[in-house]
């Protein structure tokens, strides 16, 4: 079996990391993988360990030329199936390229935002099957009219191994010029509006009076960076909040946090939540999209309503106040990751979808290529 993966992300964030995990897992199972990605993308170099990589221009939704570039690649490499992992135009142009070449196509959907009926009707016939990374996203698609048989939930995975370590929290704090007992809260997400950074900054006005030495570390990059820096200055938070940028070796530092905050307005599942749980870090997150599948309220974290700044402050104070609760939730989170979110389970789930799409006996009438 030969699979062409299309990933349009330029940085090795959550979605691209999932593609890397999948390529590695498929290689162990004897499945050949190819990867099409943007020129200079963060995934390109590590992915070469697991398959052939083709870097090419990917300029987004208006890049109709991507159809031709992908069509040439498909014609030359002759994959059995195309698996599209991202949007940014790759979903539509990649689907069209596969259709023109008569090759089955699977789409992974990682976001839970609803789409207009005309867009659903126009886009989803391009795909033989749609894989969602959470049941919450799958329910959105079903509500939009996709047939049940055309969608499957295969949850994102976390490679737990790098997080199974003893973290030297005192050394980490010393590297930041902090005392060994300074409470540290972090958020790991792209700096885009739907991740809810503004809610966290607002909630700090209820948290800092009780925890005046708290340090908040904002990990990630994105278009909101300058806006967030200005908001931190305007709200008088510069003493307590630091912009940390993108961290190449996140597993080395994530477990040094006391709490992870993720007050997103919308979220497919949240890979950083899986990573935090793997590192035994308790979480405060919003009850949005697929987040309740990654954060079980009262088990490995606390959930609040999206946008509820007051509830966010209360939940953060509750965890910062109680070291025993943090430890219990952290241990429960790591156990959950080992039990339910393994890379092997994610690989087997996607491989099952591939087999169903490629087998007319199994897939039946839902496929445009295998009408059964």
UniProtKB/TrEMBL annotation:
Keywords in UniProt for this one?
Transferase
Q: Which residues form the Glycosyltransferase subfamily 4-like N-terminal domain?
A: 14-159
Q: Name one GO molecular function term.
A: glycosyltransferase activity
Q: Does the keyword Phosphoprotein apply?
A: no
Q: Which residue ranges does the record assign to the Glycosyl transferase family domain?
A: 169-335
State one Pfam family annotation: Glyco_transf_4
Looking up InterPro entries in the UniProt record yields:
Glyco_trans_1, Glyco_trans_4-like_N
PANTHER family, alphabetized: GLYCOSYLTRANSFERASE (PTHR12526)
Put simply, this protein is called Glycosyl transferase
Organism expressing this protein natively: Parazoarcus communis
């Amino acid at each position: 079996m030969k699979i062409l993966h299309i990933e349009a992300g330029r940085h090795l964030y959550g979605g691209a990391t999932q593609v890397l995990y999948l390529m590695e897992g498929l290689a162990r199972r004897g499945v050949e993988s190819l990867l099409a990605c943007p020129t200079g993308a963060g995934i390109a170099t590590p992915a070469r360990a697991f398959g052939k990589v083709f870097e090419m221009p990917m300029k987004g939704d208006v890049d109709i030329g991507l159809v031709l570039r992908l069509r040439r690649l498909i014609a030359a490499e002759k994959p059995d199936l195309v698996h599209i992992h991202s949007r940014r135009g790759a979903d539509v142009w990649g689907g069209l390229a596969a259709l023109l070449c008569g090759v089955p196509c699977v789409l992974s959907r990682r976001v839970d935002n609803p789409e207009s009926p005309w867009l659903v009707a126009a886009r989803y016939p391009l795909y033989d099957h749609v894989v969602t990374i959470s049941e919450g996203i799958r329910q959105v698609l079903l509500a939009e009219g996709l047939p049940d048989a055309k969608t499957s939930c295969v949850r994102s995975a976390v490679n737990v191994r790098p997080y199974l370590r003893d973290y030297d929290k005192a050394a980490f704090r010393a590297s930041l010029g902090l005392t060994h007992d300074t409470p540290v809260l972090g958020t790991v997400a792209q700096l885009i509006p739907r991740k809810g950074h503004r809610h966290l900054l607002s909630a700090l006005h209820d948290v800092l009076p009780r925890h005046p030495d708290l340090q908040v570390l904002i990990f990630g990059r994105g278009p909101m960076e300058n806006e967030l820096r200005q908001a931190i200055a305007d709200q008088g938070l510069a003493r307590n909040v630091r912009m940390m940028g993108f961290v190449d070796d996140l597993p080395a530092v994530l477990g040094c946090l006391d709490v992870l905050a993720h007050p997103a307005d919308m979220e497919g599942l949240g890979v950083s939540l899986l990573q935090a749980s793997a590192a035994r870090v308790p979480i405060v997150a919003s009850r949005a999209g697929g987040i309740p599948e990654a954060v079980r309220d009262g088990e490995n974290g606390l959930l609040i309503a999206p946008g509820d700044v007051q509830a966010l402050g209360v939940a953060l104070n509750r965890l910062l106040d109680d070291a025993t609760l943090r430890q219990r939730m952290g241990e429960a989170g790591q156990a959950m990751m080992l039990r339910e979110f393994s890379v092997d389970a994610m690989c087997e789930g996607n491989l099952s979808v591939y087999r169903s799409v490629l087998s007319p006996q199994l897939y039946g009438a839902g496929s445009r290529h295998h009408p059964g």
